[in-house]
Design brief:
The complex is a heterodimer of chains A (about 300) and B (about 290).
Chain A: E1 3-14, E2 17-28, E3 32-36, H1 43-50, E4 58-63, E5 66-67, H2 72-76, E6 79-82, H3 94-104, H4 111-120, H5 136-148, E7 154-158, H6 166-181, E8 186-190, H7 194-200, E9 203-208, E10 211-217, H8 218-222, E11 226-233, H9 236-245, E12 252-256, E13 259-265, H10 269-278, E14 283-289, H11 292-300
Chain B: H1 2-14, H2 16-48, H3 64-75, H4 79-87, H5 92-97, H6 100-104, H7 110-144, E1 149-152, E2 157-160, H8 166-191, H9 198-216, H10 220-223, H11 230-233, H12 259-286
Antiparallel strand pairs in B: 1-2
The chains are: A alpha/beta (about 300), B mainly alpha (about 290).
Chain lengths: ~300, ~290
């Protein structure tokens, strides 16, 4: 599968803050790539570096097989983005905004094409209304319409469901899925709504404090058969030592917040339990987790860096 | 690039704020014209009060040309604020609205975008000056008619034959446009440092007031600086209305007393424009956009 985005050792140092720290990841053609992290984790800084709004301190960004630093214009021509908030010109109508950004993207769509675009994001009825009369959700939808107006190959959506009501969220989810499945677009979605990412992402990147915690295949991450188990014991150091000497050693994901994290097949849980008893590990709790939210909270609650486990 | 300039102009002229400047100039000029139409004689007497004992003027000095000169003197002091309203908002306004990041993620270089924005601000400034010319010169000519231009300078009077005036106004307006574009360039430069337009607008006016005071202060230590301050040269349009005289002390038609001063002033202003815009491009190209 063709790599659309390849980020290598990307670093951004603001005076006293390392916002992004040697971040590397790849996005493949057709991916809906969930970009997750707590507030201040470095998601927006990373996205802004991909759009050349922020200059990296170090590292390399390659998009569509071209170096972003050298082929900025060619690359940006094929990217549509909503960056943080869908801010547009409030004194212009939805139609005028769309037309303006279409021209900025180098195209001159017909009125019908423009209206189709507005129809797709549910704003055709309000096409001639000034944006200052729009709700946050309508602005969000217009922002997405603007990101799509020039039919880009790569779409970057930063918090696309912000300010939307449940129906609006469902509409955007369906739109993203449609763009991915029917139009084979590659979409990077940053969001704090993990349940949304869970429903649409094919691959997921979780970052914390600018560092990659996990990059993986979403279906594998969320596969009910592939479960993350958190162990709490009276003596974690002893437990970890015993597990590393056992057949479970390859399945240990790490240790954080007084828990040992093990990834295993759901059917293996009874065997693990038996082995823990046999190893005389004094178990306080054994908790299986398999939602993305659980996984996200689990990996971002500690400071340890977890390597990529799936590609 | 042309598309970018068209888009920037479209944005400028779709904003209600843009028309405040055109409205303000129209209101001021129409009020002055109305007042002088009703009571021009009193104003003429007031002007002649100081020199009435030493010379006699036969006829009416109030005509379209004099009105335009009076209005230029009054308005060109205030036009910088109207120019700054737009120019100082070009980048900071986009940052404030949140549209800057969307603009900069489009396939144009920052240099192209800034040049397009500055050129659009320049077009706006020139249109403002054209509007000023239409109302202050042409409308005054229509309402008050034509005549010789009688000007009182600090220590002498200038009488310009009516057939020798119009081209001087053309030159004066072109120069005034250059002066106002310099103000636009300053506002534009300051706008890259802020995320709302109030700061750069106030800063632009503060710079102009500060340097104008320095330009007019007659303190020897500041005299060295004066030739290099753009504020010293903003009013050099008046040089078009100083004539050379022959040995009989008669005005030479078609002459300008000190054309070199106009050229020098124009060059200083041009250098400032290049400096402000070049500085803005240099700094903005290195800037991380966090708005």
């Amino acid at each position: 599968m063709q790599q659309i985005v390849r980020v290598t050792d990307l670093t951004k140092q603001f005076k006293n803050l390392k916002a992004v720290d040697h971040l590397s990841y790849t996005v493949n053609e057709g991916d809906v790539y969930g970009f997750l992290g707590q507030n201040g984790a470095g998601k927006s800084t990373t996205i802004r570096m991909m759009l050349t709004l922020i200059k990296p301190t170090a590292g390399h960004i390659e998009i569509f097989g071209m170096d972003l630093a050298k082929k900025r214009r060619e690359i940006l021509r094929n990217i549509g983005a909503v960056i943080e908030k869908p801010d547009v010109y409030k004194y212009l109508s939805a139609y005028e905004n769309l037309q303006l950004f279409a021209r900025l993207s180098g195209i001159k769509p017909t009125r019908k094409q423009m209206m189709d675009q507005l129809e797709m994001v549910g704003l055709a009825q309000r096409a001639e209304d000034k944006v200052k009369t729009f709700s946050q959700g309508m602005k969000q939808r217009l922002g997405i319409g603007i990101a799509l107006v020039h039919n880009p190959q790569l779409i970057i959506l930063d918090e696309p469901t912000n300010g939307l009501d449940p129906q609006g969220i469902a509409d955007i989810r369906n739109l993203i899925l449609h763009l991915s499945r029917e139009s084979n677009k590659t979409i990077i979605v940053s969001s704090h709504l993990l349940s949304e990412i869970e429903q649409i992402a094919t691959r997921v990147l979780i970052i914390d404090k600018g560092k990659k915690l996990v990059e993986g295949n979403a279906t594998e991450l969320l596969d009910p058969a592939q479960t993350i188990v958190e162990l709490q014991t009276l003596d974690n150091a002893f437990a970890l030592q015993q597990l590393q000497l056992s057949n479970w050693t390859d399945k240990i994901q790490g240790q954080r917040n007084n828990t040992i994290v093990i990834k295993l097949d759901r059917k293996e849980i009874p065997a693990l339990h038996t082995d823990l008893v046999n190893m005389q590990i004094q178990l306080l709790s054994l908790q299986p987790r398999h939602s993305l939210e659980d996984y996200f909270l689990q990996v971002t609650s500690g400071n340890q860096h977890v390597d990529t486990y799936t590609n | 690039m042309l598309t970018l300039i068209q888009i920037e102009l479209y944005k400028i002229f779709r904003r209600p704020r843009t028309y405040i400047a055109f409205g303000a100039i129209a209101a001021l000029i129409l009020i002055i014209q109305f007042g002088l139409k009703l009571d021009g004689k009193s104003y003429s007497d007031f002007l002649m009060k100081d020199i009435g004992g030493s010379m006699v003027i036969d006829g009416n000095i109030i005509n379209g040309y004099l009105l335009c000169y009076i209005m230029l003197q009054l308005l060109l002091v205030h036009v910088p604020l109207l120019v700054a309203l737009i120019a100082a908002d070009m980048i900071s306004g986009e940052a404030n609205m949140g549209t800057l990041r969307l603009l900069l993620s489009k396939p144009y270089s920052r240099t192209e975008l800034l040049l397009a924005k500055f050129l659009a601000a320049t077009v706006y400034t020139i249109m403002l000056l054209i509007w000023l010319a239409i109302l202050a010169l042409f409308l005054s000519m229509w309402i008050f008619g034509l005549g010789d231009l009688f000007l009182m300078k600090s220590s002498y009077v200038v009488l310009i034959n009516q057939h020798d005036v119009f081209w001087r106004y053309a030159g004066a307006f072109v120069f005034a446009a250059l002066a106002m574009v310099t103000v636009a360039a300053l506002g534009f430069f300051l706008s890259i440092f802020a995320e709302n337009s109030i700061g750069p607008i106030v800063a632009t006016m503060s710079f102009i007031v500060f340097f104008t005071i320095l330009s007019t202060l007659n303190i020897p230590i500041f005299n060295v600086l004066k030739p290099y301050l753009f504020t010293t040269h903003l009013i050099s349009w008046k040089e078009f209305f100083d004539l050379k005289v022959n040995d009989a002390n008669e005005a030479i038609i078609g002459s300008i007393q000190n054309p070199q001063r106009i050229i020098t002033s124009a060059l200083v202003l041009l250098l400032h424009i290049v400096g402000f815009v070049g500085g803005a491009i240099f700094i903005f190209n290195k800037k991380d956009v966090l708005s």
